[in-house]
Model the fold of this input.
Amino acid sequence: MFRGLILILCFLLSLAQVNAFEIVLPKEKKSIVNTNYAFFVGQAKGSETLTINDEHIHIASNGAFAHSIKLKEGENRIFIRSPYGIQVYKIYKNTPVTQEFPAEEFDMRKAVVNCDNTPMRSTPVDAGLNRIGHLFKGTEVIINGSKGEFYRVFLAERKVGWIMKKDITFIDCNKAIPAEFIDMKTERFKNAAVQTIEFTKKLPYTIEEDEKEIILRIYNPELSENSIYNLSVPKPEKYIYKVTLDGAKYTFKVKKVPESLKEITVAIDAGHGGYEKGAIGCLGDEEKVINLKIAEKLAEILKAKGANVVMTRECDGFTSLDERVKIARDAEADIFVSIHLNSIGDIPMDIHKNRGTSVYYFNNNSKQLAEIVEDTTASHAKTRKDGVKAASFAVIRPTDYVGILVETAYMTNPLDSVLYRSEKFPQKAAEGIAKGIIEFVKK
Ligand SMILES: [Zn+2]
Done:
């Protein structure tokens, strides 16, 4: 009798494995959110019917499903009915009220920047595409206002920047002496142009680009006239650039990207790793695993074609964003490709529209590569083209390489999950990305 029961139990358990039902997202049955939509992602293998709040849900061939529900303010009860019973989720939508305050004005005060690579922004918002420069530690700035978490930096007449309050320390105005210009030099090499400019102390700067040139502007706001120094360098078709500082001597180097794959170093960055799993798919897959598979295949292909390759991670361990950038810079990478799979996150959109390959870039010098790679990856991996977008991701912000972040497919999309779970997907995606890089280099 007892043995019989165990047999029945084993039989039921094996059935449960074939007809798995699991809700991967949301993780909690009760939650408080401030998004307009809630997303339900999971698997319902073998289920013929699945409804969420009485709406019939389509189940993909591998059992994956995804659905978004528009939330109303306050409590939302969501009923999920399947042959396995009813599950109830309670999601409380709470939209915080944000109040806009005007900037506070005050008399000019002097301050120094606390750390290297401190972003200076065009608006007092700590996100997005509003960076106008990155300041070095010890740069003296003039502050004449504040708003929220930011101080306003006076650069020149009608030119200001915003810097986070935590990033500066005020100094005694009387002790500060205005900066003096010492020297300026231009050197041209076969594949690069180098300009240097030296002052008696560190000053804030911005970088701007127009059709033909890249312009480094250094501001000396304590001088009443001629307070902006412009160093402009003509833009090659494919270029990378950087600003370095030695004492108070700025070096602005603009380099042409080599046109032979054999002269190119590509940094391949498999997104996430270790405890940072990345996005979770409808069937519970972890993004970090697929990212690494694609990265390995891509490295193989590019090496075989003669490129020099460096990987930011080669196993399943945690690597910080700063480390990833450092590895690429130490190798003097010309191109940086970060590999990811997308997830809907909490973006309020129709989940089924979020499908396919998208490629992100931050600097103008990387847009062309992003466009080519979106095209070649989508056509090789048979994904839908989801667009080329500008976004501020730390690994693609440096200008000393051409940097893109490829979201090969959506982890949260059931149709994409059929694709990325197939054995040949990493190879196909890698072939697509490699083709894009090769096309870009030889263009
Ligand atoms: Zn990711």
Q: What stands out?
A: Residues 271-272, 278-279, 287, 340 surround zinc ion (CB under 6 Å).
